[in-house]
Amino acid sequence: MPRIEIDIARCKGCELCTTICPQKIIVMSDQINAIGYHTALAPDQTKCTGCAFCAQVCPDVAIIVFK
């Protein structure tokens, strides 16, 4: 089953991954990371197809895709 992992320590909350995900599984969190940004998270990954668009668009290389 495809899935993603988001490194919240690296995420700067740019929201690019939330806009490019075709399945709309990535959302912004209410939590703030150590550097002061709201981070992305993917709470329900059952619809993840492993397309890796999110990882490709992430400027901080904070997303890893497992296929």
From TrEMBL:
Keywords, in A-Z order: Iron, Iron-sulfur, Metal-binding
Q: Which GO terms describe its molecular function?
A: iron-sulfur cluster binding; metal ion binding
User: Where does the secretion signal sit in this chain?
Assistant: none
Tell whether Metal-binding is among the UniProt keywords.
yes
**Pfam families the record matches:** Fer4_7
Domain 4Fe-4S ferredoxin-type, chain residue ranges per copy:
2-31, 39-67
rRNA processing among the record's keywords?
no
SUPFAM superfamilies, alphabetically? 4Fe-4S ferredoxins
Q: Which Gene3D superfamilies match?
A: 3.30.70.20
Name recorded for this polypeptide: 4Fe-4S binding protein
